[in-house]
Design goal:
The structure is a homotetramer of 358-residue chains. Chain A has one domain: Chorismate synthase, AroC fold (4-Layer Sandwich). The first copy, chain A, is α+β, with helices and mostly antiparallel strands and 358 residues long. In chain A, a hairpin with a 2-residue loop joins strand 5 and strand 6. In chain A, helix 3 packs across helix 7 and helix 5 packs antiparallel against helix 7. Chains in contact: A-B, A-C, A-D, B-C, B-D, C-D. The interface between B and D is medium-sized, with 14 and 14 residues.
Chain lengths: 358, 358, 358, 358
């Protein structure tokens, strides 16, 4: 199936290797007549852009986007929206000595096994460079959602052992973009930055988590059985490079709870149906119930580190490597807009699917 | 899209309400010439069957299966395999007084919002009764996998606060079916049973986790970008009723780790490429690397409890309910074969997809 | 992909071999709250039923349908609608001597090559017995279309060299069901019946064509480029057993026309946009324009004939056969409801897809 | 669904408006390691290129292609192959006065009804300019097929009332590219050219037919029931602009035939199973049988003509137009590579699907 298309009605097909000519995609199924806010899209790309701060990779990509189709006079035509972003700051020579080497915890070995061939430069197709297309499609999805007042917000809730313990309803989410780590609590943010800087100095990397919230999702989004809203969200998030886990609502803590504690009782608040608690995370039976949807995703530490490691080459010989490629010491700050993008794509898709219910 | 089909090449379309005439499905894409071991399929169904032990619901369904097509002389024809399982022990009258009530943390409210109509009896389509079709399709998927020597094994690793702390490689997995809770450690199993019995006495329910392992998966299964193997597994598992979280390999613990700790170094073991550690959980860049694939899923406590709860009815009036319907005090023992089934379906599907790579 | 599912939103997955236990299917994506008129569905099945007149096969199937899910209190639930029709009058022994023989112009040889195994009884999965599922799904599609006042009508326009020359707008379509051949012109119908009876006496079979019209289709149905409305209709019709050709609007006669003759000029008729001619067949650029959609399909003569024929067996040995199986001397009378069903399914699907446009 | 993706395993998603920045597409599912012959691809594009001879439109597009991804060192990576072709010779001002006018038998009106917005310049997305992407994907599909020795060849078999009566097996197909109309019979070709020139002088257009043959297709390609090989081929061809009809094998002539005439008897030719006749067109039960696959497609005359025509504008007012846009007097010569491309895409897709059968 190729695996490069996401969505049912609102669909992104993406393309591009890290050091190829360009990355980009085609969005099919965007409703016609939508005003395409180019500044907003570029701003979303800037949030993901490498080189945006001291704690991200020093690869410097402006990521300026060119739209090739599907937009006329500032509005979507209903036809495919194609876009490309040229790769500029590729230092492919950094990878010359890695051509035949399988780096630990990268996709070098598995791509070689699957395809019998690979573009080793910068990780080729397996690089997170590909997520630039997701951010574009996510930005347009957000424009669709905005017409229904739906908002998607994510933030960094953990870096290494620095954890923002507060429930997502506590911190002031308007602070997220006020620090380079994208944590809404300024004190915690500073600790996170400190850890990342330390790890960077060591040539190492560190993991983290992102919390994401979708507000004002109307009740009724989701499909029964296999395409439950949480299942599609989980797939969307688990398809992002480095994600190792996904939990929504009560998540893993539900394993310790009793039904009498976990059940969310319904009540009416000025004719609006609400639940007193929200362990369900805004989804019941795979379908949104109108409460906030929220989830958490775990990211592993980046595999690229500037440290000696044992591994093998394509002749199965053991070798020692110490890669020089540029890398993020911690991906989660830059992954915030990616998580939002995937979430927005799922919600826009299900919002459109919803129209066929009755 | 309906949401009742799973898979790309090996596909299950399922149907059925909890108290309707029957549940079942159609498997399309099963390769031709496969010997269909009926005893094995029935045995898998028996592992999921309600009423199989004291710690499961007392609804008594024999779940005997009738195949309607796609099999001839004991072998698959390559054509659709349709099967039905009649619902027998439905006590629909138990639900008469719930007809207009939205039970807390059930799908009553969300189905009503989505469809404007619902079959309230036994939860209708939102009931886990539907998973019987998954177990059938999973059993046949296991037969496909067995030809490549691939095995899928799951067990209960947590019930409430009783946790089997051991890494999945430690316990003797041949013990799993030796106790009614399906935990490979006999001591821990006993504690789990005790908790479930207690909770049952209280008319309450309790959550838990399941750990699943796939052995002998060849390197090269998985699709890049959106259809990564872990993304499809995550979706498969998150589509099971009551699942709240999914983590694979190092999972959420990766958030605290450094790259130098997390990276799995390659080495060769008699010409076979292996990794020294397996934080990757057998998947790198979305593609299997030949190591064990393993993951953990969190289940919430069942929403049906025999306790008074506040909620509302379809006229938005507040009401108090105390449901009398039969239910499982803890779903995880019966969910073990369901987790295995979904895992087997994903792997069989990707094994078939794999054939188109080169 | 299996090939047993049709549709995007409104989807039928069908199953069943000619002499297996049952045929049937699952309809996914039917909107909720639709009144399911059981008499209408059975009536559509009766129009397709074998043994309905002297000019059809003598296989006698009542084709009584059992619905297993998706309907409650006479209304669709939005969940999958599963249905089965048991095979009753199978005389499988008629096929014993054909077990290893590849009948000319049947699918025996190609199924064997594709799958390495086949159910030879009555043609197995390749039998037109499978179309019973299409008629059920088409009947429910008609119920969806009826809410928008859309009608689908087909009739026999040719049998052998007896051709109803009149343009589809001329004959009185209310006469279609007044004769056993389903031709709206009584005189022509009689000639058609005569030919079929003759051919039947000879143990031979004869081809024919069906003309189909969809009225009141609103402008705007269809997808650009690959999923043009005519492309999907063409696929739907060409997937019916024995169909050899499809043309819509001006069809093959367009090859001889000039643009100045063929172009359909627009005008307004009481504010409704109309075209003066309708060579476009109600579709322009792949999208309906509000005029009648009409097309014609060619059917080959049934391959089963009671005449001696040379062929080979599975050991590649040349053999002479004279099959005794029951068969239709001409399929077109019974194919009328099948053509309507496929057309209705496409239109219902595209009507639902249409909701996502803007 | 958008409608801009074609294929199951080998998939093309295309984009682009006639006068937008570029047209192009993404091919997903191309097997890895395929040598990509750039000269061959450009040559296929040149066969479709406007301005290639006196009987095609004078729009002059070099159609030089840029590949952006999926190819490395001249070989396919198994990852998406993205490509763009810039639109150069757009004279959008030709269309200024048509901005609010619905041209007869174009898609102006239907796109406006569907989307509420359209790019009127050069027909926007509805222009056959889009087929350039099909030719690229078809060229790569031909490279896949070539490895199995499968060939796809098409030619013009009718222009207006000039018909190449000969059966496809008679003419010398190596002559096809020896004349500008792409007819293998030099005499008939000259008559065709004469007609087209005449029609061009009149500012009019003319229809035609194309015959296509696929040779060396192995037995066993195709899926049962809905995705029969002829159904997918029919859809592929009917999705091409201006196509009004599709028939394969005996086609519409089958309607007049008896079973005893039409049946293709099997025999063995040096152990190879063959049929004496080939009314089946190489496909039985939806699956290839190893004989030549052949079909014929009817094209209507181009809707753009330089003649006065009555129509309406978007205010429903009647207007008279005489378009000045450049156009092909007859599309069939340039449509030959497009028909081949769609056929090659279907066969490559089904060749890959075939691998999952057993």
């Amino acid at each position: 199936m190729g695996g490069n298309t996401f969505g049912n009605i609102y669909k992104l097909t993406s393309f591009g290797e890290s050091h190829g000519a360009a990355v980009g995609g085609i969005i099919d199924g965007c409703p016609a007549g939508l005003s395409i806010d180019m500044d907003f899209i570029q701003n979303e790309l800037d949030r993901r852009r490498p080189g945006q701060s001291d704690i991200t990779t020093s690869r410097s990509e402006k990521d300026s986007i060119e739209f090739l189709s599907g937009i006329y006079d500032g509005k979507s035509l209903g036809t495919p929206i194609a876009f490309i972003i040229r790769n500029k700051d590729t230092r492919s020579s950094d990878y010359d000595n890695l051509k035949d080497i399988f780096r630990p915890s990268h996709a070098d070995y598995t791509y070689q096994k699957k395809y019998g061939i690979r573009d080793h430069r910068g990780g080729g197709r397996s690089s997170a460079r590909e997520t630039v297309a997701r951010v574009v499609a996510g930005a347009i999805a957000k424009l669709i959602l905005a017409k229904d007042n739906i908002e998607v917000i994510a933030y960094v809730s953990q870096v290494g052992d620095v954890i923002l313990e507060k429930h997502y309803t506590k911190p002031d989410l308007s602070n997220i973009e006020n620090n380079i780590v994208r944590c809404p609590d300024q004190n915690v943010a500073e600790q996170m930055v400190k850890i990342i800087e330390e790890v960077k100095k060591q040539g190492d990397s560190i993991g983290g988590t992102i919390t994401c919230i979708a507000k004002n999702v109307p009740a009724g989004l989701g499909e029964p059985v296999f395409d439950k809203l949480q299942a599609e969200l989980g797939k969307a998030i688990l398809s992002i490079n480095a994600v190792k886990g996904f939990e929504y609502g009560s998540g893993f803590s539900a394993a310790q709870m009793k039904g009498s504690e976990h059940n969310d009782e319904f009540f009416t608040d000025n004719d609006r149906v609400r639940t007193k608690t929200n362990h369900s995370g805004g989804i019941q039976g795979g379908i949104s119930n109108g409460e906030d949807i929220y989830f958490r995703a775990a990211f592993k530490p980046v595999a690229t580190i500037n440290k000696e490691q044992n591994t093998i080459n394509s002749q199965n010989q053991e070798v020692v490597i110490k890669p020089e490629g540029r890398h993020d010491p911690c991906v989660v700050p830059r992954a915030v807009p990616i998580v939002e993008a995937m979430t927005a794509m799922v919600l826009a898709d299900y919002l459109l699917l919803r129209r066929c219910d009755i």
